[in-house]
Specification:
Elements lengths: L9 E6 L5 H7 L4 H8 L1 E2 L14 E7 L2 E3 H13 E7 L1 H5 L11 H11 L19 E6 L9 E3 L6 H12 L15
Parallel strand pairs: 1-2, 1-3, 3-5, 5-7
Antiparallel strand pairs: 4-6
The structure holds iron/sulfur cluster (SF4).
Length: 186
């Protein structure tokens, strides 16, 4: 008798210009992580340290907005490889704290970071510009200004319950219709 296996949907996650707090909130689902691994297989994600897509994913979770050219490439690859893309948290949805730099010219931000900041030691006075370093964009861009985003989970970070309820609904083919108490903006 041959054993039939049902393939699970795939889930991918990434952190762009974020602090990984939203990923911590994903892990904060505690013992439900065991249910999650029954529901999905993780593809590209810092959670399993898989660096590239190996399959098409049903859901992609994006933490953080776009601060560098590399962030844009990663976000575009998520759009190309995921059926449903979700902006998770304030940084992905609005740019968040990193977007505070949007009112300051990039040259001033770099000077403060590498030359003039109170804790900077840089006797050669060089601002790093190695081609290996991702090129900074002029502003931080929320994800939906770069690619089409299907759903938004607000919060800084969204609570583990919010992420869990949203994921389970989408993985079961239901609309993402969260109860009012799970939609928070702080
Ligand atoms: Fe961190 Fe908050 Fe941004 Fe999430 S939304 S990456 S927790 S700062």
């Amino acid at each position: 008798m041959t054993e039939t296996t049902t393939e699970k949907p795939k889930l991918a996650t990434c952190s762009l210009a974020g602090c990984f707090g939203c990923h911590m909130s994903i892990l904060d689902i505690d013992e439900r992580i065991l249910e999650l691994v029954d529901l999905v297989d993780f593809d590209k994600s810092p959670i399993n340290d898989k660096k590239t897509f190996t399959d098409r994913c049903l859901v992609g979770l994006i933490e953080g907005g776009c601060s560098t050219e590399e962030n844009v490439h990663v976000l575009e690859s998520f759009r190309n490889n995921c059926d449903i893309l979700i902006s998770v948290g304030a940084c992905a949805i609005t740019g968040g704290i990193p977007a505070l730099r949007n009112n300051i010219p990039l040259t001033e931000c770099l000077a403060e970071a590498y030359l003039d900041g109170p804790t900077v030691y840089n006797p050669r006075g060089v601002i790093p510009r190695d081609p290996e370093i991702p090129l900074c964009l002029n502003n931080i861009y929320p994800c939906h200004e770069v690619v089409k985003i299907d759903y938004f989970l607000p919060g800084c970070p969204p609570s583990a319950d919010t992420i869990w309820e949203g994921l389970v609904a989408l993985l079961n083919g239901k609309p993402l219709d969260l109860p009012y108490e799970l939609v928070k903006y702080d």
